[in-house]
Amino acid sequence: MPEQITLYSAKICPFAHRVELALAEAKVGYNRYEIDLANKPEWYAPKVNPASKVPAIAYGGPQVSPDLPSPESTKIAESLILVEFVADLYPESAILPKDPVQRAKARFFIDAVSTKFLPAYMGPIAHGQPFEPFWDALEDLQRLLPEDKKYAVGDEYTAADIAITPFLARMEVLMELGMKNDIGAFKEGEGKKAAEYYFESGRFKRFVKYFEDVKARESFKATFDADHIKEKYTARFAAQVPAPAVAAAA
Ligand SMILES: N[C@@H](CCC(=O)N[C@@H](CS)C(=O)NCC(=O)O)C(=O)O
């Protein structure tokens, strides 16, 4: 019988979002504590995660207030490890496929997310780098999606989908901000162009459809606060929006 779970998370963090998705898919009740990444509590690193990052789980031990973590609980960090931990605790969930071939395919997809997609992910949007390497990485990942199934390795939503979902969700928010307001670390006009290319060129048709299926899931609706993310990204990138002509002239 699994014991108490306390998740230290942050709404903005895609890695923490992975663990929230896994817990929602497994339909687990847990305590959630929001860590303010800009102002982390002084007890967090010494008592929960020495790396001082979210996500982390305190597992087992007595039911205590999350801001007074018990030394008796086991502390575990790293999103992909935590997703597998949830799958191990709740083997009846579909998070890790039972079939060894499907399981291997899920792990292959996760590896591609970690080694190909993520290194290219924030470059153009957060650091103003060219979009092309990112489009290529996205296309490589898209090739792994089966044409005739809903999700990354079949019709079940698994750890493979959990690995990419939070990043696609944030990418879509950034694309929408880029499309409407040109918000991002790119040159004026580039955000709109990139967003139009992603949604309308047809190159990422399978991905756009895939993500529609992901967004329809209850686990996604319950764990993604798009307004919060929009607000945070708008504030974060506001300083990088090219100044309007009148301000520049002043
Ligand atoms: N490899 C880690 C990455 C976790 C991570 O980078 N989390 C960020 C937030 S998205 C964090 O807590 N950074 C510490 C900070 O902002 O001070 C995982 O997969 O869990």
TrEMBL record:
Gene3D superfamilies xref list = 1.20.1050.10, Glutaredoxin (3.40.30.10)
Tell me yes or no: is Transferase among this UniProt entry's keywords.
Answer: yes
**Which Gene Ontology cellular component terms are annotated?**
cytoplasm
Q: Does the keyword Oxidoreductase apply?
A: yes
User: Which keywords does the record carry?
Assistant: Oxidoreductase, Transferase
Entry-linked InterPro entries? Glutathione-S-Trfase_C-like, Glutathione-S-Trfase_C_sf, Glutathione_S-Trfase, Glutathione_S-Trfase_N, GST_omega, GST_Omega/HSP26, Thioredoxin-like_sf
- GST N-terminal domain location is 3-94
**Residue stretches making up the GST C-terminal domain:** 99-236
Highest rank taxon of the organism: Eukaryota
UniProt-recorded Gene Ontology molecular function terms: glutathione dehydrogenase (ascorbate) activity; glutathione transferase activity
Q: Which PANTHER family match?
A: GLUTATHIONE S-TRANSFERASE OMEGA, PTHR43968
| The protein's name in its UniProt record | Glutathione S-transferase
Annotated organism of origin: Mycena venus
